[in-house]
Design a protein that fits this description.
Distance between the termini: 78 Å
CATH class of one domain: Alpha Beta
Strand content: 5-15%
Bound molecules: guanosine-5'-triphosphate, magnesium ion
Oligomer: single chain
Radius of gyration: 28 Å
CATH superfamily of one domain: P-loop containing nucleotide triphosphate hydrolases
CATH topology of one domain: Rossmann fold
Strand order of the largest sheet: 2-3-1-4-5-7
């Protein structure tokens, strides 16, 4: 028995947004992303759970699906795993059909489909707390007899809310109901006619075992009357976005100053302890200035994510998608593209992965190709560094910070570019194919779970600091080295850095980039910036720290303000709105489109846009007298 049990694999299968991942996290102690909109999970995840009887089982979290008749890529993953067709994997020995207890119609049909797979199935009525609160009456015994399946209730987000499910899993294992690992079953994808028959049966069972109150969730209805209003709703959406960027600038100030002084203190410590020379320069100018200039942006990134996570868990994001649908549709984007594009504000990579929920290949490709234009969090350090150095911290129109306004403008430019680009691609590449109508279920609002928020923030912080400690740190070592060798000749007349390899590389690139106002220091920083955007900030930190080694302690922002013209600063901002400076995004685009061609297309068009935008910005700014 233990033998079977140790290897037993249990799959969580259910409709989108019914709480599979929340259950998975509760059962295994994992920290997978949970949010209140459909389509969060797009890949299979596995972790070990231990039942109350002390049996270790392997639990699989899967993308949500309405049926085993799969349409989009994420649904295909679920189907293939359930049916044992997934490359190199046997079908799981036990299926837990997770259902949102407030929304059972399609869930019961799925349960009936799963029953035919030939594996034991447990139906878990999740979100039972909400169902009870709303007055949904479910006769569990009746439901179980009618379906011919064990039925349990669960509350994934409450301690002890999974107890019944775990006990039932133990009972199935103890009862010897599990098939041998790898045993064949009777699997086939259901036909459309079979699906219709299953739905009729599900509706009959629903009528006999469940009483649902006439009206939906009153709170949701009340909020939606305001938030989904065509005019008022858009105004609220814009206001929210706007407040978000205001907060990024105003709230972050104090923690940023603290981190800054922390690194300054570290620099002075090194200055006092290490004798002047290469080692001190390496530690102070390379490591501390370089890495420190990036880490300082952590508070801003966390504030931005606090907003996003709150809205996600509350259930607002699906509403934002609904509001944006007409605008996005006008640009030729699929309604389902909203969530992928939204995720791209964090990073284009999860955004591109999230396009798997789009079933049409063209629509999916279009979304992948514009996702990197959304302003990812790696751009924040670049934007804020330049904005803080060049845009005065003034209040305009009584309440708005000017810096926040500029930041808002840069985000808006990214969104506009994505919409424009997708519009152009529709016209030029694909000649207006009719897009699928928008179909995204609007979930009921839920009170955000503090644990979700905390975990989400912790995860962002970890990702950010890990990058600072690995990629950025490694790049800094290289940059410091390039800035420090060779040492200048004894009869040197120019600053030492002018003789370095870095300066030579920068000067070699100057002819190409001088027309857009970049100096050689920027040119050098752009090269490691290809690996990851924020590295450019760290590189500037190192280049200028080495260059101004004697005037120690000066902030990078002050140095830039003294050395660059406003036109150059604006041009660099424009460059960063478009430039394809992220190696990992390019490789994910290649993987997800399955072609080099689309990756090169993406790289080419973004580079061209970046150059054109920077060129135009620089010359217009010069013309306006911002030299
Ligand atoms: N009140 C309550 N909320 C829950 C429960 N289970 C999940 N939630 C919330 O429901 C939302 C959706 O949960 P997820 O676990 O992301 O749903 P999912 O089924 O994995 O969704 P997809 O991956 O998109 O298919 C989140 O906001 C959860 O916090 C529950 O039992 N009670
Ligand atoms: Mg999930």
């Amino acid at each position: 028995m233990t033998d079977v049990a140790l290897t037993a694999r249990i799959a969580l299968v259910g409709n989108p947004n019914c709480g599979k991942t929340a259950l998975f996290n509760a059962l295994t102690g994992s920290r997978q992303k949970v949010a209140n909109y459909p389509g969060v999970t797009v890949e299979r995840k596995e972790a070990v759970a231990t039942t109350p009887a002390g049996v270790a089982v392997r639990l699989l979290d899967l993308p949500g699906t309405y049926s085993l008749r799969a349409r989009s890529l994420d649904e295909v993953v679920t189907r293939d795993i359930v049916l044992g067709r997934f490359a190199g994997e046997d079908a799981p020995e036990l299926l837990v059909c997770v259902a949102d207890a407030t929304n059972l119609r399609l869930a019961l049909r799925l349960a009936l489909e799963l029953k035919r797979v030939g594996r034991p199935v447990i139906l878990a009525l999740n979100m039972f707390d909400i169902a009870r609160h709303r007055g949904v009456e479910i006769d569990l015994a009746r439901l179980s007899t009618e379906l011919g399946l064990p039925v349990v209730s669960s509350v994934a987000v409450r301690r002890g809310g999974t107890r019944e499910l775990l006990d039932r899993i133990d009972a199935v294992i103890r009862g010897g109901e599990l098939p041998e690992a790898g045993a064949a079953g009777s699997w086939a994808e259901p036909s459309a006619a079979e699906l219709r028959a299953a739905q009729r049966e599900a509706d009959r069972i629903l009528r006999s075992a469940v009483r649902i109150p006439e009206r939906g969730d009153p709170l949701t209805q009340r909020i939606d009357r305001i938030v989904l209003h065509p005019v008022l709703g858009l105004a609220i959406l814009l206001t929210l976005l706007f407040l978000m960027f205001q907060a990024v600038f105003t709230w972050a100030q104090v923690p940023m100053d603290l981190i800054k002084s922390g690194f300054d203190w570290l620099g002075r410590l090194v200055g006092a302890a290490v004798p002047a020379g290469a080692l001190r320069s390496f530690l102070a100018d390379g490591v501390i200035s370089g890495v420190g200039s990036v880490v300082v942006f952590l508070p801003q990134i966390l504030i931005l994510f606090l907003f996003i996570l709150l809205l996600e868990d509350f259930g607002y994001m699906a509403r934002a998608a609904f509001l944006m649908d007409r605008i996005m549709g006008g640009a030729g984007l699929h309604g389902r593209a909203f969530i992928p594009l939204l995720s791209s504000f964090a990073c284009a990579i999860p955004g591109i992965m999230a396009t798997r929920v789009i079933d049409s290949r063209r629509d999916r490709l279009a979304t992948i190709l514009v996702a990197p234009l959304m302003t990812c969090s790696a751009r924040i350090p670049v934007y804020t560094l330049i904005i803080s150095a060049f845009v005065p911290a003034r209040t305009v129109w009584a309440i708005f910070s000017l810096q926040g306004l500029v930041m808002f403008g840069l985000y808006a430019a990214g969104i506009a570019a994505a919409l424009g680009m997708s519009w152009a691609m529709r016209r030029l590449l694909w000649r207006r194919e009719p897009s699928n109508p928008f179909m995204l279920e609007l979930p009921d609002y839920k009170r955000p779970v503090a644990r979700n928020l905390a975990l989400g923030l912790l995860q962002r912080a970890k990702i950010f600091l890990r990058r600072a400690g690995t990629t950025i740190f490694a790049m800094m070592v290289v940059i410091w080295f390039l800035c420090s060798v060779p040492t200048p000749p004894p009869d040197a007349t120019e600053p030492a850095i002018e003789y370095s390899l870095a300066a030579r590389i920068g000067h070699a690139l100057e002819p190409a980039l001088a027309p857009i106002g970049f100096n050689w220091q920027i040119d050098v920083a752009l090269i490691p910036g290809m690996a990851a955007r924020e590295v450019a900030v760290a590189s500037l930190g190192t280049v200028y720290a080495v260059e101004n080694a004697d005037e120690d302690g000066d902030q990078l922002g002050h140095v830039l303000a003294g050395q660059w013209s406003l036109a150059t600063a604006l041009s660099l901002l424009a460059w960063y709105v478009f430039a394809p400076q992220c190696a990992s995004t390019l490789s994910v685009v290649k993987r997800e489109t399955g072609s080099w061609r689309w990756m090169l297309f993406l790289f080419g068009y973004m580079l061209a846009l970046a150059y054109a935008a920077a060129f135009a910005t620089y010359h217009i700014a010069l013309w306006l007298g911002a030299g």
